[in-house]
Design brief:
about 230 residues, two-stranded antiparallel ribbon, 4 strands, BTB domain-containing protein
Length: about 230
């Protein structure tokens, strides 16, 4: 994809942006920020981490951003219910909490500031990260990481439009609904108890999944019936 020509924006005022992290500042050409908008938005910068704001500015200049990498979290202790072998695997596993929350937070910032193309990239990478984490992490740790993402998604922390948060919530709930077995896990049940809106979204997503599955089954059956009617030569 051809990169946007932004050289004309390198003159003019530079905006100093402070996030919720104390003492750190990110700088961006104000004219570039305004030019990249595709819709009105004015989400407060102080709602976001400097790392997220840095990714946002990185996208403005490069049409892309550096995705965070999963890292070992030395502060976490394995649940006491795990076997010795599972506990060792838990301790040696990486955490995707920062990966999940960065993509989610950057999505909110992008949509809140009217940069819709970046928002779409963020949701795509969030979906990829959830699938990757599910395949690599012990289930107990994966569910812990998902709980952090769920908490962020269902507890809006800035003044963005409700529809923006709803889009993020839909992405998370649809992924959970597609893995129905997780809903039987104790740790997930605790999350469902805390996040009542998630329960509603899961019900809607599960119902839609059932409708889509039924539709695909009927289409496949119709195709098979059509093949049976083709005369043999």
């Amino acid at each position: 994809m051809e990169r946007t020509n932004i050289s004309s924006f390198f003159t003019g005022n530079v905006l100093a942006i402070k996030g919720r992290d104390s003492g750190e500042t990110v700088y961006v050409h104000k004219s570039l920020l305004e030019a990249r908008r595709t819709a009105h938005g004015n989400c407060l910068w102080r709602c976001f981490s400097v790392a997220t704001i840095t990714n946002f500015v990185e996208y403005l200049y490069q049409d892309d951003y550096t995705s965070p990498l999963p890292a070992v979290d030395k502060t976490k202790s394995p649940p006491c219910t795990l076997s010795a072998d599972s506990a060792v695997k838990y301790r040696n596993s990486v955490s995707y909490e920062e990966v999940f929350t960065r993509h989610a937070e950057l999505f909110i910032l992008a949509r809140g500031r009217g940069i819709h193309a970046l928002g779409m990239i963020c949701l795509g990478r969030l979906k990829e990260a959830m699938a990757e984490a599910e395949g690599k992490l012990p289930q107990s740790l994966f569910l812990e990481n998902m709980s952090v993402l769920i908490h962020y998604s269902y507890n809006p922390c800035c003044n963005c439009d409700e529809s923006v948060w709803a889009e993020l919530q839909k992405t998370v709930s649809e992924y959970l609904a597609s893995r129905k077995g997780w809903l039987l896990e104790a740790s997930v049940s605790e999350v469902l108890y805390r996040e009542q809106e998630l329960v509603k979204d899961l019900f809607a997503a599960t119902l839609q999944l059932a409708i889509d599955t039924d539709k695909r089954v009927k289409e496949a059956q119709k195709l098979r019936d059509g093949l049976k009617q083709v005369p043999m030569v």
